[in-house]
Structure of DNA-binding response regulator:
Amino acid sequence: MWNVLLVEDEAFVRRSLRHIIRWEEMGFTIAGEAEDGEEALAMMKDLPPDVVISDIVMPVMDGVELLKRAREEGIESSFVMLTCMNEFEYARQALEFGASAYLLKLSMNVESLRETLAKVDRELRRSLRMRSQSSAHAFQPMYREAWQAMLAGNAGSPASPGARSFEAAEPFPTVWIGSFLHGPARFALDDFLALGLVTTGCRTVVHEFVHYGMTTFFVWNPISVRPMEEEREHIPWAAACSPISAGREWAAVWARVVRALDRAWYEGGTGPVPVPSASASTAAPAADTAAIGWKAEREWFRCFEQRKLDEFRERLRQAWDAIADRRLPMAAVKETALRIDRMLSRIAGADHPAEEQWVACVSHRELGLRLLANAERYAERWAAGGLPPTGHPEIDKALDHIHRHFDRDVTLKGVAAMVAMDETYFSGLFKKKTGDTLIHYVQKVRIGHSKGLLEQTELPVAEIGERVGFPNTNYFIKIFKRWTGTTPNEYRNRPNG
């Protein structure tokens, strides 16, 4: 919604302009009126409007002088000049100083005003987009840092990275933040502006932060906002929006908005979701932000690899219900689901779905059903395929044991004893049937699993090594480089990784 200031010394002309069209339908709202340029300039310094519709000939200060003074003051409002036929020279001067258009008073009608406003609307959107894009590079690191702090449970704290990097937003004393759980539906800046929730100004910038079907808009230096309840019928998704807040509090405000949206994620429904006050707790404790502990995940994967599929399904359902009971952050749950799906697909040797499928999930229940359906598909592939047989039952048994227990201490002596064979004889037979020594085969299995963890998680290298069976970090790095030609960190940070 664009703010309009009417500047006209004749009251009946101002009244006519107010009632000639439905301004809101065009995306404009009349925010103020002034009788001359001097009064208008004072109002503009206090709160710059997006558009000034000004008469040219007025007492005290005329419209052309108002435009010149506004530009000297650094006010970038768009100007539409009202003129009469014998004032064309003034109109020409106004255009030279940057006016967007002029309207002839005597011949002005609904159609001409609509055409002019449509032109101004395009210019304002282009200007807003350019301002926003030019500043986005400085803000995006700030948003990403605050997002990670939010997932870690310390959103908005004075020590959080997002709070420390506020310097980028210093010129913007106020902010409005709205998050929308729109799923796969298109939702870009123009769609957001069409909702008419926020009135911007000529010094406003708008940025987007997108995460798996949720988009947050940051409106820095908004003019005003409309209550969300009035727009319920226009928002087909769950949405949570803040009031206009102090810019320095943006990280804490964002945390409250996102946690409010978590409620809709678990309970379902569309439309506005109330945002808690600043005094309410918004972030889960840091210890609770991990959706599922590694020990639990490891048991899931072990059940899956051992083809105990009924047990695996039951564990998955129980964990999903527990997550809902704990009301863990939606973003952490989505990332957990994605990571588990990738690991299951890797174990089964199956293709995993495109990320668009996860974006489409707009509720906790829907995401759980998607994850379970994918797991069923992987399980069918895993049950039907499995490891290719070597033709020797003891070696096949040994291979099955290795793939089930690769994260434990797997030794030649222990595996040979398990299949009741002489250690030396078993060693030679194993290499004959697989092409690898047992220790090399175990290393390949472990490195394969470590690749998945490097690709799908942000876990430290040391923890990944331990999870796949390398308690010594240096040894893990050495073996990883031997098999891949890169260190674990180099593998994780490779351009197409």
The domain at 393-492 is CATH 1.10.10.60 (Arc Repressor Mutant, subunit A). The longest strand covers residues 174-181. The chain has four domains: 2-108, 129-273, 290-384, 393-492.
